[in-house]
Write a structure and sequence with these properties.
The protein is of the alpha+beta class. The protein has helices spanning 2-20, 26-33, 37-49, 136-142, 192-207, 223-226, 232-252, 274-279, 283-290, 376-387, and strands spanning 54-62, 65-72, 75-79, 106-112, 122-127, 147-152, 155-159, 165-173, 178-185, 258-262, 267-272, 293-295, 319-325, 330-336, 349-358, 361-369. The strands form three sheets. A seven-stranded antiparallel sheet has the order 3-4-5-9-8-7-6, with helices on both faces.
């Protein structure tokens, strides 16, 4: 019996000793990170494996200067209007005094059309002969980190004292002598895994900002190819809108009802055409077969185009032209103000019209698109018209 108590005491003593050796900061760090390091590593590896599809965009700095960048399909850029990014680039206690404001970096926001919240992704750009400008060592000094997740010569990924997950990544183009400082602060979600996925997705965007050799040929892009490369957050953002359309089509749209989703840089207009449903008319087929080019009022069949989506945009005597068939369900059209049609300065706008025929009738989905009909909205619309989901 005495021997049994001795073994038990020894085991308990060793356990308490091992607990006493534990780093007192470990519990705080674990709480700060939210999920185990092994899970974070797995999320990063999963994001790294995704194939990214890139578009080249041009940002006009001034009348004499413009720069190019590579951003993922479905994104756009706009000038960042605030005074500083979410990462401090200089000592807040001793800010530098610059008389010539042209020497200060310019902020460019990277935005996603479909996401109402974003990661505050900002690229600070500027011209400099110093390829090592704004080094990571300085960024660490000016941005105290509670936990550094990753660091190398050009990158710092960390969690600050408020639990915000932040990214700093720098690149320098030795040919143009411009620097690119990619910064982000991941938005807060009720899902730590989603936050880390968004963080490492931003890091992948940052690494590809000057990857001009990876530009995707437009004719090779489809929604089936694009979807696997999206972050989980992007997929969820896109799915919200098309799930809404799916419900409208399945439960609510009757007679000549319509559903309209309009945001800053995209729109989705789904409607049912009662007459086309009764007579078995598919206007995308009629327009494509005739290679129609004329005015809205010259369309050789009854339609609800100028009474619906195009109402307030164009009049009956404005130009409407078939450009090409995108698939067996979708066509690309251009529309142009008739009064300006004879002037060279007039620029047409482009639209994708997709036909959706179900046992509930004939529906059409219309959106703005680019001149090739291959932006992400067009790709998703075409896919949705065939599968009623994305």
């Amino acid at each position: 019996m005495i021997k049994s108590y001795s073994v038990l005491f020894a085991t308990l003593f060793l356990f308490l000793l091992s607990c006493g050796k534990k780093d007192p900061d470990t519990g705080y760090t674990d709480m700060l990170m939210g999920i185990p390091q092994s899970t974070i590593d797995s999320i990063q590896k999963a994001e790294d494996k995704k194939q990214v599809y890139l578009d080249k965009v041009t940002f006009t700095v001034d009348s004499a200067t413009s720069i190019n960048m590579m951003i993922p399909a479905g994104h756009y850029i706009k000038e960042y209007s605030f005074s500083s990014p979410n990462i401090r680039l200089e000592d807040p206690e001793n800010p530098s005094q610059v008389e010539d404001e042209s020497l200060l970096p310019i902020g460019i926001s990277i935005k996603n059309n479909f996401s109402d919240s974003d990661n505050g992704e900002i690229v600070m750009v500027g011209a400099s002969d110093n390829p090592d400008i704004y080094p990571v060592s300085d960024i660490k000094k000016f941005n105290p980190a509670e936990k550094i997740l990753f660091e190398d010569k050009n990158t710092l990924i960390f969690i600050d004292s408020f639990g915000h997950k932040k990214l700093y990544h720098r690149q320098y183009d030795s040919t143009t002598k411009w620097y690119y400082l990619y910064t982000s602060e991941t938005a807060k979600y009720n899902d730590e895994k989603l936050e880390y996925a968004s963080l490492f997705s931003s890091y992948k965007k940052a690494r590809n900002i000057l990857a001009f050799d990876k530009e995707t040929a437009p004719e090779n892009l489809t929604w089936e190819k694009l979807k696997p490369g999206l972050s989980e957050l992007e997929r969820k953002s896109y799915d919200v809108y098309y799930t809404s359309l799916q419900k409208e089509l399945k439960y609510f749209l009757k007679d000549n009802d319509s559903a309209n989703i309009k945001k800053t840089n995209f729109d989705l207009y789904l409607y049912r055409d009662h007459l086309h449903s009764q007579k078995g008319i598919d206007q995308t087929k009629l327009i494509a077969d005739a290679a129609f080019s004329g005015t809205f009022e010259e369309l050789p069949f009854e339609n609800r185009l100028t009474d619906g989506y195009f109402r307030g945009k164009y009049r009956d005597d404005d130009r409407f032209k078939f450009i090409k068939r995108l698939s067996n369900t979708s066509i690309l059209m251009s529309a142009e103000d008739g009064e300006q049609y004879s002037y060279s300065s007039s620029q047409p706008a482009y639209y994708i019209i997709s036909s959706i025929k179900t046992d509930k009738g004939q529906f059409y989905l219309i959106s703005m698109t680019n001149k090739n009909g291959n932006d992400i909205v067009a790709l998703m619309n075409d896919y949705f018209s065939k599968h009623l989901k994305i």
